[in-house]
Q: What sequence folds into this?
């Protein structure tokens, strides 16, 4: 065994040189890894005893990409292309042996090997698009040469991690190895290549698939059209497409130059900066400063859910999807039956679209049971999540019962979206076991989980909840108890401004358009129409005192009644409504105000700066651990455009001093609801940003 450097070894296994990388956690292509690869390939190439070379990794994965922490500074030598030239240009066969994930730069390295062997559990992909980038180490030119431009388009614009079996079917992997026997299989494969005198297959010279697509611009035009909605606002998908066009229309080296140019443009742009920030923000959110990594976890083998409505059903699906049995308790049999039927329907819909198999539907349904009795069903559960009507008295009643029924140590969780969890916990004799698990609707789809820590919640309960969130595929953020927690509290700030802007003369569609153009999937009024204007509205108590009252009284209750703030045609396409406009106008006249023209810039500042200010108050009160946690909440639960980072990141980009100046201006004009947060004032005084906190 020869050590090349601290992360690279080179050994001779008979007549095959084996290069082993070991750079935890994910063997990213840091400077030492590049150096190790470069030197190891040089040595292996020069060693006449080696007839072939295998590249393999230790630890949980093959190379998972470039080292993202190194981005932003010039690459220390050797640069990645030099390493890749060494590999691809080797005069003996090179085999990449893949387990875990070969992603981004990792797959780009593997594409310079002449052959690829993988275990079935491995996954391969070019996920740079998710970081606002494109594969910048030849992936855009090599992948289409292997799998064809159409597949490359799908893979590179989605960033999907392709399972090894599928990778083999599309030519990306040459052979599957038995799980746990990768090294032996790769060495044997390398010997076979030598024995059979197979060619050194250099992908850069394989032009068949790209040439076949030449002169067919419709491949790209159709793809752009089909995905226009999905890609709206993002630069990276379009740049990835352009690189694949270059692979089709230009010789390899010119294509590489195009790739380089577009890669650098993205790398230096604001979108990728925001998306790279978000990657780390999500991972940082998993860390709770006063909860140690080795905090004991409570084993969660069975879960109880109270409420079989949309929320309870969606929550239950998360656990069944992860293989954890769950029992749902309802008060009435018909509500329970309806809830279970809805869950089945959801699974069947996913199956009909090819998302899961028919067996998986049955297997998941078999993990979900229903009951009318908490006493009978909750004795042995390790976690209960209550998802009933948002009323403190009902919640208190439930938690009193849970306290009596559940075994000691079981986690008692509420899905409340804003009630005081300390008050709920106070009715139990074990407030240390009480926590908020705030799922977002539809709970089986939305990624965000706000985990709400109450005064007495134990560290074990917090650590277990964070871990469990990851197990069920959620992005978890730990927040503190305050009205609306982090997400809804900031949403409230935006909604208030949107309503006020209407009373000053901006029409709902003007406000929605400004926010849609900013990058939100929809504005607040379109969202109200979708949810239903009559949520929480009671006809008998309506006094026609608000715009909403009048719209609801006119049976304009949103999309479901064919009209709300907007008019809807038979295809549910929204149109500005003269009726709504008149209602608004009448209200403005009644208030004695003069409507004025409000431009998009003002709409954005009025809606978004108070959100940033509210975020600052949340930080000031310690209800979020860090500014980036707030951004994770808004990206994953409220549709904040990923390429704009999140409200706090955006505040930093605009500049805290500008946000503060505007808040002061608004405060002077419109009153103290715009009072700047003390933390915002302090940031500006100290010449700092939210990211510095
Ligand atoms: C690229 O390759 C550009 C090239 O085309 C061009 C170059 C010229 N770098 O997610 P986890 C850390 S762009 C640095 O919790 P999992 C991560 O921060 C790159 N660090 O584990 C975390 O650290 P910590 C293209 C990285 O098992 C730890 O590893 N590649 C990187 O749930 C564990 O991560 C990608 O976009 C990295 N590349 O998932 C892949 N990756 O423990 C990005 C991870 O201190 N990575 N870390 O918090 C992933 O998708 C997942 O991490 C992976 C493992 C699936 C690999």
A:
């Amino acid at each position: 065994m020869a050590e090349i450097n601290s992360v690279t070894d080179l050994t001779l296994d008979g007549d095959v040189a084996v290069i082993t990388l070991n750079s935890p956690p994910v063997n990213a292509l840091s400077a030492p890894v590049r150096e190790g690869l470069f030197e190891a390939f040089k040595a292996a190439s020069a060693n006449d005893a080696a007839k072939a070379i295998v590249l393999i990794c230790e630890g949980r994965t093959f190379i998972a990409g470039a080292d993202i922490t190194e981005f932003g500074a010039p690459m220390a030598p050797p640069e990645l292309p030099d390493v890749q030239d060494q590999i691809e240009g080797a005069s003996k066969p090179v085999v990449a042996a893949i387990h875990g994930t070969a992603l981004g730069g990792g797959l780009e390295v593997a594409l310079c090997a002449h052959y690829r062997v993988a275990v079935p559990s491995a996954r391969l992909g070019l996920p740079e698009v998710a970081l606002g980038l494109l594969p910048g180490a030849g992936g855009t030119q090599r992948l289409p040469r292997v799998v064809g431009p159409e597949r490359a388009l799908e893979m590179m614009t989605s960033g999907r991690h392709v399972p090894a079996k599928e990778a083999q079917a599309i030519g990306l992997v040459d052979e599957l190895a038995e799980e746990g026997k990768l090294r032996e299989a790769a060495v044997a494969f390398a010997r076979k290549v030598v024995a059979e005198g197979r060619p050194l297959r250099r992908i850069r010279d394989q032009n068949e698939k790209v040439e076949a697509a030449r002169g067919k611009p419709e491949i790209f035009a159709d793809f752009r059209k089909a995905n226009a909605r999905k890609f709206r606002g993002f630069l990276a998908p379009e740049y990835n497409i352009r690189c694949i066009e270059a692979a089709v229309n230009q010789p390899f080296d010119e294509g590489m130059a195009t790739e380089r140019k577009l890669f650098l443009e993205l790398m230096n742009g604001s979108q990728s900066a925001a998306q790279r920030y978000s990657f780390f923000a999500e991972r940082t959110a998993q860390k709770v400063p006063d909860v140690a990594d080795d905090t004991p976890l409570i084993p969660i083998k069975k879960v109880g859910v109270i409420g079989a409505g949309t929320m309870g059903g969606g929550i239950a699906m998360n656990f069944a999807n992860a293989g954890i049995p769950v029992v749902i308790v309802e008060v009435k049999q018909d509500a329970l039956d309806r809830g279970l039927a809805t869950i089945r329907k959801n699974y069947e819909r996913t199956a009909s679209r090819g998302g899961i198999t028919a067996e998986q539907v049955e297997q998941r349904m078999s993990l979900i049971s229903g009951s009318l009795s908490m006493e009978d069903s909750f004795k042995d559960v390790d976690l209960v999540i209550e998802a009933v009507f948002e009323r403190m008295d009902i919640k208190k009643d439930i938690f009193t019962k849970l306290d009596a029924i559940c075994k000691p140590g079981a986690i008692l969780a509420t899905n409340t979206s804003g009630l005081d969890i300390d008050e709920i916990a106070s009715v139990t004799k074990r407030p240390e076991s009480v926590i908020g698990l705030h799922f977002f609707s539809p709970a089986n789809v939305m990624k965000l989980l706000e985990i709400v820590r109450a005064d007495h919640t134990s560290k074990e309960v917090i650590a277990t909840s964070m871990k469990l969130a990851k197990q069920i595929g959620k992005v978890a953020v730990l927040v503190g108890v305050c009205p609306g927690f982090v997400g809804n509290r900031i949403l409230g700030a935006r909604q208030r401004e949107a309503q006020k802007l209407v009373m000053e003369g901006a029409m709902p569609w003007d406000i929605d358009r400004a926010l849609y153009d900013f990058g939100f999937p929809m504005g607040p009024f379109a969202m109200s129409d979708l949810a239903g204007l009559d949520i929480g509205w009671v006809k008998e108590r309506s006094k026609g005192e608000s715009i909403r009252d009048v719209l609801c009284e006119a049976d304009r209750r949103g999309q479901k009644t064919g009209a709300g703030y907007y008019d809807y045609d038979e295809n549910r396409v929204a149109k500005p409504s003269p009726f709504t406009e008149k209602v608004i106008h009448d209200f403005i006249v009644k208030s004695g105000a003069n409507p004025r023209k409000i431009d998009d810039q003002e709409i954005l500042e009025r809606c978004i700066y108070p959100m940033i200010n509210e975020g600052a108050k949340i930080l000031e009160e310690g209800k979020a651990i860090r500014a980036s946690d707030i951004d994770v909440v808004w990206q994953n639960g409220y549709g904040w455009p990923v390429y704009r980072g999140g409200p706090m990141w955006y505040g930093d980009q605009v500049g805290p001093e500008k946000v503060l100046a505007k808040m002061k201006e608004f405060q002077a004009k419109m009153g103290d609801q715009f009072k700047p947060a003390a933390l915002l004032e302090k940031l500006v005084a100290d010449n700092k940003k939210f990211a510095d906190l």
About this structure: The longest strand covers residues 8-13. Residues 506-591 form a domain with the N-(1-d-carboxylethyl)-l-norvaline Dehydrogenase; domain 2 fold (CATH 1.10.1040.10). Residues 25-26, 28, 61, 64-69, 80, 101, 103-105, 108, 127-128, 131, 133, 135-137, 139, 283 surround (S)-3-Hydroxyhexanoyl-CoA (CB under 6 Å). The CA atoms of residues 511 and 603 lie 6 Å apart.
